[in-house]
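#onboarding

Welcome to the new folks! Below is a worked example of what a typical request in this channel looks like: someone posts a single protein sequence, and someone else replies with the predicted structure as tokens. Don't worry about understanding the tokens yet, we'll cover that in week two.

Example request:
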Amino acid sequence: MRGVFITLEGADGCGKSTQAARLADALEASGREVVRLREPGGTAISEKVRAILLDPANAEMCPECELMLYEASRAQLVREVVEPALSRGAVVLCDRFYDSTYAYQAGGRSLPEDLVRRANALGSCGLDPDRTLVFDLDPELAYARATAGGADRMEAEGLAFQRRVCDAYLRLAQAEPARVRVVDASGEREAVAGRALAAIADLVDVSRP
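Example response:
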């Protein structure tokens, strides 16, 4: 039985990492094996690429280089971890996947959308998420949260960049409503968690012990 591939998306500071942990706890309590991952990262090679991508010292990195590094990290993660986990029936929760590349590199960086989509097809090795949750929060609030303790290379692009990212996510949700669900990320964490669980209820049963 193939597993279920769920990705969590949203601008920096939207709370998706916190919600990933809550989803993982609920799914594990229901008896499912859960493999929780992050992008870029998740393998030894991918974590090294992550360090390059997020290092503020690499401010001169051009958008095309950035795009290809994200895709390289993703391909390694898919082949090494995601595909084997799905093959054995696990639920894979990934904090970011190719929709982040669409939002940040096409939306934020203004690279051509067709170019980014073709790169995503290569980097994902043809694998699509079964469900993508976009955690939607006011960009100004999310940006303040994300940069409260300092900014990595992507966060340092500023609020206007983050607004373009948020707009791209909403366009994506409108274009692919069957796969992509927008989750209101405002309010108490428990309420947000309830909305997230409701958005995957048709794919996984979290009610059984």
